[in-house]
Amino acid sequence: MRRPIPVFMFCLVIMSACTVAPLEIYEPVVDHFLVDPVQYSRDITECRSVAARAMALAKQRQDAQMAPNILTGFLIGATIGNASGIGSETRKDSTKQGAVFGALAGAVESGDDVKLGPRRIMDRCIANRGYDLLNDIP
Length: 138
What we know:
Elements: H1 5-17, H2 37-84, H3 91-108, H4 112-128
């Protein structure tokens, strides 16, 4: 019987490769008609600084939540894996696989805010300074 763990790990690696451009080079799409380039450059630098501080705080919060998420996922995954393997010879394997999948799900759970949150903050910061933002603000 083929094991699903290598396939899952391959998918996880592929998904992690779909990263977002770093905040240092991100720039919101702004209508530059009647915009002072010097003031815009100053504003974009200040908004990038605000977003970077927010990203650092979000990263600290994510790191603090990572261990409990992994542990919770591990325990729930092991329980489900154990329950699904009752009465079979592969009960230990089901428990191990459930624990691994649960731990990985717990680790992956809270990563999006760190990548996308600061961009949203930067978009709002630029929009609040009076620029016509052409990005879609979710």
